[in-house]
Design goal:
0% strand
């Protein structure tokens, strides 16, 4: 559950970072740094989730189940969604580490997979978790859905109604006005 909450926070921060506007009290670079730090923390919690499940005899999670989806013996459909999510998080982390080599356009394209990754984590938590249908877990899932949904809605609405900056003509420096 901690990983799910952190991943939801990562989504919200990523959406806010991409909007290009600062949060109240935080400059843009701080939001980006918080997004990056929260992402790494969430990945650590996902790794801890996988490691502890691989040691749990009830879960019967094998190494191959963490890479190849839908092979697991315990709720294979829901576990497979988690495996696809893990594969996508590896893609997200790897592309972020190689961002300077990939270029901004390719990195952004790969980063759009977060919008597929996150719903898979929600579905995995709901269907595979032993507490997936309990009242407290449904409240956590609802809060995560509301948070990310609000951020996506804000981003769509604020982009639509944001004033477009008109291009500002640039004049030549005073001493160089005659050179062309």
């Amino acid at each position: 559950m901690s990983a799910l909450v952190l991943l939801s926070l990562v989504m919200v921060l990523g959406i806010l970072t991409r909007s290009g506007r600062p949060l109240p009290g935080l400059p843009r670079f701080a939001v980006a740094a918080l997004h990056r730090t929260t992402s790494l923390t969430a990945v650590a919690f996902v790794a801890l989730h996988i490691i502890t499940l691989s040691l749990d005899p009830y879960a019967q999670l094998h190494l191959v189940d963490t890479v190849v989806p839908f092979l697991g013996s315990f709720k294979p459909m829901w576990q497979g969604l988690g495996t696809v999510a893990v594969d996508l998080v590896v893609l997200l982390v790897g592309s972020s580490l190689l961002r300077h080599r990939l270029g901004l356009r390719a990195w952004r394209l790969l980063h759009w997979t977060a919008y597929l990754f996150w719903p898979l984590t929600i579905l995995h938590a709901f269907g595979n978790g032993t507490d997936g249908h309990s009242a407290w877990m449904l409240a956590v899932l609802g809060t995560c859905l509301a948070g990310v949904g609000t951020a996506v809605g804000w981003r769509l609405v604020s982009d639509r109604f944001a004033p477009q900056a008109a291009p500002v003509p640039v004049s030549a420096p005073h001493g160089l006005a005659g050179l062309r």
